[in-house]
Amino acid sequence: MAVKIQSVIADSPAFHAGIKENDILLSLNGHEIRDVLDYMYYAAEINVSTTVERCGRHLTFHIEKSEYDDLGLEFETFLMDKKQSCTNKCIFCFIDQMPPNMRETLYFKDDDSRLSFLQGNYVTLTNLDQKEIDRIIEMRLNINISVHTTNPELRCTMMHNRFAGEKLKYLKQFADAGIAMNCQIVLCPGINDGDELRRTLTDLGNLMPNIQSIAVVPVGLTKFREGLYPLVKFNKETANEVLDIIEGFQAEFLEKYGTRLVFPADEFYITAERELPDGKYYEDYCQYENGIGMLRSLGDEFEAAMKNAVKPTEPRTVSMVTGEAAYDFISKLVKKAEEKWHNIKCNVYKIRNDFFGDTITVTGLITAQDIIAQLKGKELGDALLISKNMLMRDSDIFLDDLTVPDVENALGVPVLPVDNDGFELLDAILYK
Fold first, then answer.
1. Does one domain contain both 274 and 311?
2. pTM
3. Phi first, then psi: what are they for 8, rounded to 5°?
4. What is the pLDDT of residues 249-279, one digit of tens each?
């Protein structure tokens, strides 16, 4: 697939070689360039023979550069073509549970293996063929895989895709080739928990040492499930059963491989009404982005920050919002700060998720309209702290398309988005 060069960075190797804007990139060192993976892989060499098409003629430029230095070519899209969308109809898909009339991008189902390597996204493997698997192996690319179950028939049912089961063969191919894999299991009560979870963890354990980590997260259910597969949420009993199974496998894996390998989401501990494990339990927090260990990491950082923080010189009152799941944990943290510094006060407000339904309790899915409706008339103090997880990446836009300024105007208070970082959180509470 030929790709049009949108621009050439000034003073880059490609610029000095004579490659120009609007040239069509055909190949690097004789390899056809189909997308960003080919480009990054073949452009990493010291000597790069670059063939382009210009005005109907094929021109080849010989470029010498430092290893891994970029050639300096820019394209219309980051991937150099369109994102690959999901071909599944998973029974637990969160996007199928979204309300109508939201922005179009929120309904796009991404299942692009290239974003697995480049941005850490999880993919199901269902839209990959053997040629793509061979390319991943040739390039020695680590991959993040949404497994859910290693029972082929059940995987077909859960993904509503008749090819989902046979794609499990790629796990073995990756393992045999030494490709490192992070795996994810979205757990649905009565579907892939219990003995099915035991089977999945056993099968993935047999692929060691090439499985780096396994995340087990509970299914999220919104109020917009009319006509969808009947699912229920985890309760105290079923969450405890999941933790018992996982902890049994963790002990086995720790003895065999020196790692717990499989980690449950924080929500399981909250639902089961168990204490969160300590920081050592999470090892290197390898599944942090899946919500695993986020609260423990936040708590440990917050308490470490308290030990060295300078006492605020002026009285300060702030507020912060959190989902129902994290409310008790966050409230206890804040209370420690208030007890140490009596001139500060932080009101913690639990936001009920009316937008998606009260079955959604995580902080990252809180919307601006719920914040506004539930905090109108409340004592908010000098500022309102919110988690950056509520916002689109690198923006001030909430899921419901309202913005941080919209909340500020509605509540009459500055809104401060804060990372899931205990040091940053304490700074936001203590100082202006």
1. no
2. 0.87
3. -125, 125
4. 999 999 999 999 999 999 999 999 999 999 9
Torsions phi, psi for 97 (to 5 deg):
-105, 15
Question: How many angstroms separate the CA atoms of 38 and 171, rounded?
Answer: 22
Check pLDDT > 70 for residue 84.
no
3-class DSSP assignment, residue 249: helix
DSSP, residue by residue, 116-166: HHHH---B-STT--HHHHHHHHHHT--EEEE-S-S-HHHHHHHHT-TTTTG
CA dihedral 101, 102, 106, 109 (to 10 degrees): -10
Is a pLDDT exceeding 90 seen at residue 146?
A: yes
Find the domain containing 351 and state its range: 297-430
pLDDT digits (tens, 9 = 90+) for 300-346: 999 999 999 998 888 999 999 999 999 999 999 999 999 999 999 99
pLDDT over 90 percentage in the chain: 74
Buried b (16+ CB within 10 A) or exposed e, 212-221: bbbbbbbbbb
Q: Are 122 and 114 in contact (CB under 8 A)?
A: no
Specify whether the backbone of 125 is left (phi greater than 0), alpha (psi in -120 to 50) or beta: left
Lowest mean pLDDT among 33-47, 135-149, 193-207, 362-376: 33-47
Give the CA dihedral 174, 86, 149, 93, nearest 10 degrees: 150
Q: Which pairing describes strands 47-54 and 211-218: parallel, antiparallel, or unpaired?
A: unpaired
DSSP string, 56-79: TEEEEEEEE--TT----EEESSTT
* DSSP secondary structure letter of residue 397: B
DSSP single-letter state for residue 27: E
Write down the pLDDT at residue 127. 87
* Res 338: pLDDT: 94
The three-point CA angle 68-74-80 to 5° equals 95
100 shares its domain with 241? yes
- Are 131 and 268 contained in the same domain? yes
Domain boundary, last residue among 228, 259, 291: 291
- Summarised one tens digit per residue, pLDDT across range 58-74 is 999 999 988 878 899 98
Q: What is the total count of domains within the chain? A: 3
Give the total residue count for the chain. Answer: 432
Distance CA 16, CA 200 (A): 53
For tokens 């790629």, the residue is: 170
CATH label of the domain that carries residue 410: 3.40.50
Question: Residue holding tokens 């689109």?
Answer: 392
Query: Is 210 in the same domain as 345?
Result: no
